[in-house]
Amino acid sequence: MGADFSKRKRFKNWRTKRPFWAATLSVISGIIILSVPVQLYEIAAAPGSMIVIGLLLGGLTLLMGILGFMMPRLSTLLGILAILSSVLSIMGALGGFLIGTILGIIGGSMMIAWNPKFGTKESLSHPIYDQLAEKEAASGKELVPE
Fold first, then answer.
1. pLDDT tens column, 84-96
2. Of 71, 75, 79, 86, which shows the fewest CB atoms inside 10 Å?
3. 10 Å Cβ neighbour count for 59?
4. Distances (CA, A) of 88 to 53, 61, 120
5. Is residue 58 predicted with pLDDT exceeding 60?
């Protein structure tokens, strides 16, 4: 039970440092958007068809979700690109029957709105340490001996 608890706690710590639900919705959106052109590929594969655009935009939405897990500091840019690719996927993949587009817009919006939380609870609950650190940096002298 101890090992299971530590894995759960480690996952929770990992999840809080990333736009987890936003990236998850973007990945699901990308999979749904990709499902339409993949199913139509054998039937409607002809020169000039929009299937390639559907594959490209669905893959881009999926990629933005995966990158949201790996690079949380770029969540604003990734969210904008996820929204853009999911809205444009209406042309080439019917937006995953609009379900993929809606999930992509929600996931991208959540990625844009996500703010990282840095530091521990102890450092966030003691603003006096922040003031001391600012004075220490400004003066160049150590104010609090270790």
1. 999 999 988 888 8
2. 71
3. 16
4. 9, 10, 40
5. yes
Please, are residues 72 and 116 in contact by the beta-carbon 8 Å criterion? yes
Question: According to DSSP H, which parts of the chain are helical?
Answer: 2-16, 20-44, 51-70, 75-97, 99-113, 121-125, 127-139
pLDDT band for position 118 (cuts 50, 70, 90): low
Measured CA to CA in angstroms, residue 77 lies from 74, 83, 97, 113, 128 at distances of 6, 10, 25, 11, 34
Is pLDDT at 60 greater than 90 in this prediction? yes
Domain boundaries, the chain: 2-115, 117-146
Q: Is the pTM of this model over 0.85?
A: no
CB 50 within 8 A of CB 101: no
Question: Residue 142 and residue 132: Cα distance in Å, rounded?
Answer: 9
Contact 75, 103 (CB under 8 A): no
Q: How far is CA 134 from CA 29, 117, 123, 126, in A?
A: 44, 20, 14, 14
H or E segment to which residue 49 belongs? none
pLDDT at 44: 72
